[in-house]
Description:
Elements: H1 2-36, H2 50-81, H3 92-123, H4 138-141, H5 144-164, H6 172-198, H7 208-241, H8 248-268, H9 270-274
Amino acid sequence: MTLTILFYLIFISQIFLLSYYFPKKIMGRIKYICAKYPPADYPKLYPGSAATKIPGHLIFYKGLNGAAFLIGLLLLIWGMATGYRPEGHGEETIVTFYAVLQYASLILLSIWEFRNFKKMRQLNNSTTRTADLQPRRLFDFLSPGWFMLAAVLLLMTLVFTYTVTDFTEKGLSDVFAKFAGPVLVNVYFLVFGRWFIYGRKLNPHQTAEDRRREITISVKSMVFTSIMISLFFIADEAVKTFDMAHLQPALWSVYFQLIGALSFSVMLHSDLIKNMDFSVYRKDASSL
């Protein structure tokens, strides 16, 4: 009974945080920027027809999160009405599908942002260019200790998985999936992190200082996410190995909330707004 109550409380937290609290903060941040840095004074911040599309985008974003919130409540009511109790029969799949639905709005925001940057580059006809001559290295943005912790935890994940997996009972595809999951995620972080540090900047107007600040936050987020993913894989494998699969739905819900909190925190980080140089978006500003 106690475990059931705990699961419902954790799932309520997932509904509230990922479909209401963080989206509301994101919308507040967007409205703040539009009010403080309007299109009339900062036209380069709104390339093309971006300024006219923002109200519609916000309505769609709010509606998408509202739908996810409602679906979460319906799942909650359905579970309580049917007397659902986590028993370890694959219920974490429902939690996963619901989390994917909640993340849809975050993915949509990222797509809009990339499109905005692409339009900025297309309209950036300035012939003046400045380069950041200060070399960029990984440990300029992250303490080596955090990187080593992420690497050690990945190794521990693989060793633990190898130790507890019964290769005589598990098929080759299942065994491969157990190892491929954490490895591929971390390879993605390495490739994307390297591109983010050394690749061309997406925002053509961004100052070197703003870019370094953004890289620092993003790189730290990826490393912290890697650490949490490794801990999750170890915990998930442990509960299955020691016949505690009934804990998986709650464990997966906590995992998705932590990953979501990190993802939203990158967008909501106060330094990205408080210390950002918006003067580069004025009509007469020189592009960087």
